[in-house]
TrEMBL record:
Domain EAL: 23-277
Species this chain originates from: Acidiferrobacter thiooxydans
Name the record gives this protein: cyclic-guanylate-specific phosphodiesterase
Coverage span on the entire protein: 537 to 815 of 824
Length: 279
């Protein structure tokens, strides 16, 4: 009977698309990765365009797979999101990122903002507040140094829920940013209605600056309106000096992109933070 069962399983597997089998294998490996602590965070600086100082960093997860090496998040975050593993993974990310920010401060480095990506599932269905409170407490980090990043799609999914949750975060002093702004369906008016602190302009706009006048007009409008609502504007993904010049001319506040730095491991980021003029 056992053998038969094995046969059935094998037959079932062979009928699954290789895509589904791949997903199952990844899910299994992600469980192991969590248990074996195979995830690492890299940090990408956000640089003030007026002073050149590092105002904050975004924590970006990588998976140090023993066989495949460093796996980028695009290859496993969507599967983690589908399977629910994103919740314990984000718990780890928040705890690790807050602990890192706390230890940088205790080492005498300037207080910078630590930005963490929050997925749809956790924002809409999980105990985000409980996880955030726990991470801050365990790290001994003041709430104002933590910033959560959510995309337009997450913001728009359930407007009442979004309002409640963002209010609770604001009450604690945690900052909130809209990630990938311009790619989804978030009307500019929502920037006024929700308690948000930062707008991150999507890389796709930034990379066409100077090449496409319509993109430039959209970027200029986003920056102006965001400023009207007293929001801080961070441009994502600037790679060239001319893109940076355009963003300065458009009055963008800060920049996160390869032009200044790729996401780097914690030790490398410490060196940047210790240097008052890193770029
Ligand atoms: P994102 O939140 O939009 O993060 C920015 C991505 O743009 C990062 O890719 C970063 O390396 C890349 N980037 C920054 N500057 C430049 C540039 O100048 N040029 C180019 N070509 N790329 C640039 P990464 O680290 O591969 O992350 C991809 C996505 O994975 C993130 O996009 C985010 O959606 C997701 N992700 C990463 N870490 C986490 C996490 O801890 N939790 C969750 N839920 N999602 C995460
Ligand atoms: Ca992000
Ligand atoms: Ca982004
Ligand atoms: Ca993105």
């Amino acid at each position: 009977a056992r053998e038969e069962g094995g046969d059935m399983a094998a037959r079932y597997r062979s009928h699954m698309s290789s895509d589904a089998a791949q997903r199952l294998a990844t899910e299994h490996a992600l469980h192991r990765a969590l248990a074996q602590q195979e995830f690492v965070l890299h940090y990408q600086p956000q640089v003030c365009l007026k002073t050149g100082r590092i105002l904050g960093v975004e924590a970006l997860i990588r998976w140090q797979d023993p066989h495949f090496g460093l796996v980028p998040p695009g290859r496993f975050i969507p599967i983690a999101e589908e399977t629910g593993l994103i919740v314990p993974i984000t718990e780890w990310v928040l705890a690790t990122a807050c602990a890192q920010a706390g230890s940088w401060q205790r080492a005498g480095m300037p207080g910078i903002t630590m930005a963490v990506n929050i997925s749809a599932r956790l924002f809409n269905h999980g105990d985000l507040l409980g996880i955030v409170d726990h991470a801050l407490m365990a790290a001994g980090l003041e709430a104002r140094f933590l910033e959560i990043e959510i995309t337009e799609g997450v913001i728009m999914r359930d407007l009442d829920h979004t309002t409640d949750l963002l209010r609770e975060l604001r009450r604690r002093g945690v900052r909130a940013s809209v990630d990938d702004f311009g790619t989804g369906y978030c009307a500019l008016g929502y920037l006024r209605d929700f308690p948000l602190d930062v707008v991150k302009i999507d890389r796709s706009f930034v990379q066409r600056l100077g090449a496409d006048v319509r993109d430039e007009a959209v970027t200029a409008t986003i920056i102006q309106i965001a400023h009207t609502f007293a929001l801080h504007v961070v441009a994502e993904g600037a790679e060239t000096a001319s893109q940076v010049r355009r963003l300065v001319a458009l009055d963008c506040d800060a920049l996160q992109g390869y032009y200044f730095s790729r996401p780097v491991p914690a030790e490398e980021c410490s060196r940047l933070l210790r240097n008052p003029q890193p770029f």
